[in-house]
Each structure stands twice: as structure tokens, then as C-alpha cells.
Specification:
The complex is a heterodimer of chains A (about 290) and B (about 270). Chain A is built from twelve helices and two strands, in the order αββααααααααααα. By secondary structure, chain A is mainly α. Chain B has two domains: about 50 residues, no CATH class; about 210 residues, MetI-like fold (Orthogonal Bundle), CATH 1.10.3720. Classes of the chains: A mainly alpha (about 290), B mainly alpha (about 270). At the A-B interface, helix 1, helix 3, helix 4, helix 5 and helix 7 of A face helix 1, helix 2, helix 4, helix 5 and helix 6 of B.
């Protein structure tokens, strides 16, 4: 190593020091602390604080509320991500097919994505209003209680989430579409490919990779979803929209079980990391194959 | 004939996307509707428009305080994330570091970090440090959460700055700071804007931490104030609509005025690997 390299290395460490300090103190340290908390019985209001070993995790195995929350999280994640991909690709293709006014078209989409999720929740709470909600009015003055019916609440929450996050998928796909060289389409035309063939043989394969990335981001986001259901339904009715994160939050801050709630948080963390890891492996394998 | 069909298609697509934004426009319309007409639909359109809901929200609710808090917290978070993140990103992009691969992996992994995972220890930490219900507490946790994405984005943009420009500055005798000030930052300006916008939006929209660490109007941000918007006997839909519009004003402004930077940041965050 030359002296210049050594100097650069020192500089690098110095420049990175504030980052390491911030992430160490506010992400890594709490990350270790939460593991420790999850091994304890800790209920401050009853002055309970003792070591519990794996009790909290053992309880999860027989906790019906936990399995319900896990199922809700899975259903929510799969349905909302699937809808986002289908709608997102469609929207991207539609905007790309336009000649003018793309900026305006993008604005309509970005509007939904950029505002706080709490606002989205309030928007949809009003749209779902049993008597005065726009959705019931549009369906011909019905009085469906979207958020109060245990069968409809989760689909209603999924719809609100899809509305807010589909634009993310659409924007990524749209940016990729812009980067597909025009020669590719010209060549296809020369070869006599029809519209459908062009779409399935050229456009969609070109989108595959960015879609995988978008799905990864969206899946990780959906697995830890909190804001929408916490504000829109509070996890109800009858726990039908209670995701793992909402359950963990309520255990922590509503029933004040710091130990048990932390165990739930650790489960969400492990779930997200496992999915991310599996996905990156898949993505890498895909790169090698392609 | 063919041309007019294409134009028709263009119009249809635009109409479809405008329809997509209806939930937003419906709330906008609701915020101007007279109280008595809110629950009487149809007709969909109000007989007249009123500013009464905005008056209530501005004069009688805690929303103005919350707006101030959000503006302060989000601005400070953005500045702090850039001040900490820019040198870090430069080191990651340009300088040799021990364990660089592992470091990059850790940065990517922490962009996926679920907030719920650290909210309980952070709550205890905030209490121990007496930072609950303060701007400082929120700015710190927001910064630490936004930092991985900020660094990821900036490192990508820094790699796009031609290294020859930096070498030329070094030959001219500029030190690291000088190179930074006169070469890197000017060339990086659009990237900085993208990273800053995304950080600002994250902090402005963030709910879980803000809801947990704030107690009073001293630090409650907009999403928290909106989630807790009080209704005494019945839900004040018109006031909530007006409050929602105030809460979405900065994000909407960013979408309209600074769309280019926003899209660039979004795409860069996903594509750079």
C-alpha cells in the first residue's frame, strides 16, 4: 500500500465516521437492545421486569392473534403487490404511448404517491363513508359499510394502499421504457412483428428486471405496513386488518408489554430480512442466467 | 383519421389518469363544501364554495402548530442527512475503505429496516435522554432512518461525476475540501436536490416514530395531528378535508414544481446496484 492509499483510507474513515456514529447509535444499538428486550417480561405499569428467556417467542407459537396477523400480513402483501404490478405496468405503457402531456399524466400519479399515508387513510375513510361516501354513491346509492364489515375491510385497505403505491411501480417502469432503444422497435417492425408480439417479446422482457426491483421494494414495504391500517381501521373490525406491525405496535404502546411487543418486532424484522435476502439471491441468479 | 384516433387515445389516457386522482380532488372539493351539504350526496357538486373549514382548521385547531413542526423537523432532517451523508457517500463512492463490500451491503440492508423493529428501544432511549416531545429527538431518528437511502443515492450520483474533473482540481493544488466545494458539489447539484427532496418527503410523511415520540403540540407533526384530529360528537369531515389539504400541500408542490428531480431520485434509488 502506498502512502497515498493509506492517506485516502484514513480520509475515507474520517468522512464516514459521522454516518457510522449515527447509524450505530440510532439503528444498530437499538437493534441489539430490542433483541434483549424481547427476552424479558417487561410491563412497566405493573413494575414487572424480569428475564424470560424465549417465553415470548414460545407464546407466539400458540397465539391465535399472532397467526391471524401473520395471515393478514401475507394476504395484504401478496394482493397489494400483485395489483400494483399489473396496474403499474399498464399505467407506464399508457403514459409511454402518449405523445404529449406526459408531465401532466405523471403528476396525477405522483400526487397519490407523494402525500402522507395518513392523508391517504383520511381520503379513503371519507370515500368509504357508508352514506355519503363517493364509492357507495357511484355504486348507485348503496349503503355498504366498507370499513365495518369484516369481509370487506381488508380489501378496502388493500385498495387504499394500491392507490398510494402503484405510482411507484409505474414511474420505475416508465423510466425503463424511455431507455429502450427505438432501433429495437424498428427492427421488430421490419420483421413484421405485430403489436402483441412487440409487447410480449420486447417490451415486457425489457421491463422484467426493473419490475423485480420494484416488487422487492414494494414487498418489503407491504410487509411492514402500518400507517394505512392503523389510521383507517385501527386493525379492525374484529382484527381483520391487523398486520404484524400493527399488532406489535399495540402490544408495545397500547397494552404496554415491552418484552412481548419487542419479540413481535423482532419477528417482523427477521421476516423482512429473510424476504430481502431470498429476493436478492433470486435477482443475482437471474442476472447470471440472463 | 388516424391522427385523430391517436389524439383521442391520448385524451382517454389523460382522462383515465385524472380519474385516478379523484380521491384527492374529491377531498379538495369536500374541503370547500358548506357543512350542511357534506352528508347530502347526490348532488356531488356543492351549491357554493366556502372557506369555513380552512378558517376552523387555521384558527381553532393545532394544525398550524403541526405545520410549523413538520416544516422544521423535515427541513432539519434533510440538512442533517445531507451534512452527514454527503461525506459518507463520497467515501463510499471514491475512497478505498476496509470491508467496503460489507459496508455497502449493510447500507442497502438498512434501507429495508422496518421501523417497528427499533421503536421500543428508541422510545426508552428518548425517555432516558429527555428527548421525547422535542424536535431534536424526531430529527435524530428521522435522520438515522433516512441516511442509508441518502448515502445510496448520493454515492450513485457521485460516481457519475467525471473523476477527471476531480483529478484536475487536485493537480491545481486544491485539497479535498476545495475539490468538494468547487468541483464535486456544483456537478452534483441535481443529485443533491433529488436526495434532499426524497429525505424531506420521508420526514414530512413519517408517522410511526412521530406518533410514538411526540406527546403535545410542542412537537406533533402533521400526520400525527391529522390522525388525532378531534371530533366532539360527530366526525368533522369538512375540517379533516381542509387539514388533509394543508398536510399534502408541500408534497403536491414538490410533485408539480420539482417533478424532474423527484423522478430522477426515485429511479436512481431503484436502479443503482
Amino acid at each position: 500500500m502506498t502512502r497515498r492509499d493509506a492517506a485516502n483510507r484514513r480520509r475515507g474513515m474520517l468522512l464516514l465516521a459521522p454516518t457510522i456514529l449515527a447509524l450505530g447509535a440510532l439503528t444498530v444499538y437499538p437493534g441489539v437492545w430490542v433483541l434483549w428486550l424481547s427476552l424479558q417480561h417487561r410491563i412497566p405499569i405493573f413494575d414487572v421486569s424480569r428475564f424470560a428467556g424465549l417465553d415470548n417467542y414460545a407464546f407466539l407459537a400458540v397465539d391465535p392473534r399472532f397467526s391471524n396477523a401473520a395471515r393478514t400480513t401475507a394476504v395484504f402483501t401478496v394482493t397489494s403487490v400483485a395489483l400494483e404490478v399489473v396496474l403499474g405496468v399498464t399505467a407506464a405503457l399508457a403514459i409511454h404511448a402518449r405523445r404529449g402531456g406526459r408531465r401532466l399524466a405523471l403528476s396525477f400519479l405522483l400526487l397519490a404517491w407523494a402525500m402522507p399515508a395518513v392523508v391517504t387513510a383520511k381520503l379513503f375513510e371519507w370515500l368509504y363513508h357508508p352514506t355519503a361516501g363517493l364509492i357507495n354513491v357511484a355504486l348507485g346509492a348503496r349503503s355498504i359499510n366498507w370499513l365495518g364489515d369484516p369481509r370487506l375491510a381488508l380489501p378496502a385497505v388493500v385498495l387504499a394502499d394500491v392507490w398510494r403505491t402503484m405510482p411507484f411501480v409505474a414511474i420505475l417502469c416508465y423510466a425503463r421504457l424511455l431507455a429502450i432503444p427505438a432501433e429495437l422497435y424498428e427492427a421488430a417492425q421490419v420483421d413484421g412483428a405485430g403489436r402483441l408480439a412487440t409487447l410480449t417479446r420486447i417490451t415486457l422482457p425489457m421491463l422484467a428486471r426493473i419490475l423485480l426491483v420494484a416488487v422487492l421494494f414494494r414487498t418489503l414495504d407491504a410487509l411492514r405496513a402500518f400507517d394505512i391500517m392503523f389510521v383507517l381501521t385501527g386493525g379492525g373490525p374484529a382484527g381483520t386488518t391487523e398486520t404484524l406491525t400493527v399488532y406489535a405496535y399495540r402490544a408495545l404502546f397500547q397494552t404496554l408489554q415491552l418484552g412481548f411487543g419487542s419479540a413481535l418486532s423482532v419477528v417482523v424484522f427477521l421476516l423482512v430480512m429473510a424476504v430481502a435476502w431470498a429476493y436478492l439471491k433470486l435477482l443475482r441468479a437471474g442476472t447470471v442466467a440472463a | 383519421m388516424r391522427r385523430s384516433i391517436r389524439t383521442l387515445g391520448d385524451v382517454l389516457i389523460l382522462v383515465a389518469l385524472a380519474t385516478y386522482a379523484i380521491p384527492f380532488f374529491w377531498q379538495l372539493l369536500t374541503s370547500f363544501k358548506p357543512e350542511a351539504e357534506l352528508l347530502r350526496v347526490p348532488p356531488l357538486l356543492p351549491s357554493r364554495l366556502t372557506l369555513a373549514h380552512y378558517r376552523v382548521v387555521i384558527e381553532q385547531s393545532l394544525m398550524p402548530r403541526a405545520l410549523g413542526n413538520s416544516l422544521g423537523v423535515a427541513t432539519l432532517t434533510t440538512l442533517l442527512a445531507l451534512v452527514i451523508g454527503l461525506p459518507g457517500a463520497y467515501a463510499v463512492a471514491r475512497l478505498p475503505l476496509p470491508g467496503k463490500r460489507l459496508l455497502l451491503l449493510a447500507i442497502v440492508a438498512s434501507t429495508a429496516f422496518p421501523q417497528i423493529a427499533t421503536v421500543s428501544p428508541l422510545y426508552l432511549l428518548m425517555r432516558a435522554l429527555d428527548l421525547r416531545d422535542t424536535w431534536a429527538g424526531l430529527v435524530l431518528v428521522h435522520t438515522s432512518f433516512a441516511l442509508p437511502l441518502t448515502i445510496w443515492l448520493l454515492a450513485g450520483f457521485i460516481r457519475e461525476v467525471p473523476i477527471e474533473a476531480e483529478e484536475a482540481a487536485a493537480v491545481d493544488g486544491a485539497g479535498l475540501l476545495g475539490t468538494f466545494r468547487w468541483v464535486v458539489i456544483p456537478l452534483l447539484a441535481p443529485g443533491l436536490a433529488s436526495a434532499a427532496l426524497l429525505t424531506f418527503l420521508f420526514s414530512w410523511n413519517e408517522f410511526l416514530f412521530a406518533y410514538t415520540f411526540t406527546v403535545s403540540e410542542a412537537s406533533r407533526t402533521i400526520p400525527v395531528a391529522l390522525a388525532l384530529f378531534p371530533g366532539v360528537f360527530e366526525v368533522p369531515w369538512g375540517d379533516i378535508a381542509a387539514a388533509s389539504m394543508l398536510a399534502s400541500f408541500p408534497p403536491v408542490l414538490i410533485v408539480i414544481v420539482l417533478q424532474r428531480f423527484l423522478v430522477r431520485g426515485l429511479v436512481a434509488g431503484a436502479v443503482k446496484e
